[in-house]
């Protein structure tokens, strides 16, 4: 696997799965996920993806607070799980990863929302994340 977009997509999937599994279960879920990929990921990429996942996970209390502040009128519990996972990853990249430009984080998040979310997911994700760009 090469490319930041593909890595980002895999981190998103792990974040999404973590909403349904405990921390202990995620280790097994992660292995199951990588074993079931249509296009296998090399070991180096797998390690990097898992490191990114854990880096995001470590910041979730801060990230979730920021999402709730910026998604005016939306309680986190009302945000779809796909969109919420995408927002978590994008907010991590915007706030805590100096290597990812804000515009790239937003554009990639919108693309993930269009691919995995419901009809208006891209617009919703873009609207929330635009508040981080200002």
Descriptive account of the structure:
This protein is mostly helical and 134 residues long. Helix content is 74%, strand content 0%. It has helices at 4-18, 23-35, 43-58, 60-70, 81-96, 102-116, 121-133. Helix 5 (81-96) packs parallel to helix 7. The chain is globular and about 40 Å long. It starts with a helix and ends with a helix.
How is the secondary structure organized here?
Elements: H1 4-18, H2 23-35, H3 43-58, H4 60-70, H5 81-96, H6 102-116, H7 121-133
Helix pairs in contact: 1-3, 1-5, 4-5, 5-6, 5-7, 6-7
Under the CATH scheme, the architecture is Orthogonal Bundle
> How large is the share of residues in beta strands?
under 5%
The average pLDDT is 93
Number of H- or I-type helical stretches: 7
Q: Which fold does the CATH topology refer to?
A: N-utilizing Substance Protein B Homolog, Chain A
> What would the principal axes of the Cα set say about the shape?
globular
Largest sheet: none
What would you call the structural class? Answer: mainly alpha
Number of strands: 0
In CATH's first tier, which class applies?
Mainly Alpha
Low-confidence segments, given as residue ranges, are none
Short description:
This protein is mainly alpha-helical.
List keywords for this structure.
134 residues; mainly alpha; N-utilizing Substance Protein B Homolog, Chain A; 7 helices; 74% helix; 0% strand; globular
């Amino acid at each position: 696997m090469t490319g930041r977009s593909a890595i980002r997509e895999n981190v998103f999937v792990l974040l999404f799965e973590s909403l349904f599994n405990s921390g202990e279960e995620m280790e097994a879920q992660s292995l199951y996920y990588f074993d079931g990929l249509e296009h296998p990921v090399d070991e180096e990429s797998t390690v990097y993806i898992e490191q990114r996942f854990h880096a995001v996970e470590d910041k979730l209390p801060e990230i979730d607070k920021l999402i709730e502040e910026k998604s005016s009128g939306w309680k986190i519990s009302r945000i779809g799980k796909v969109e919420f996972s995408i927002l978590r990853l994008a907010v991590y990249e915007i706030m805590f990863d100096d290597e990812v430009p804000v515009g790239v984080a937003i554009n990639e998040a919108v693309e993930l929302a269009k691919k995995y979310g419901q009809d208006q997911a891209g617009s919703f994700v873009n609207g929330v994340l635009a508040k981080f760009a200002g």
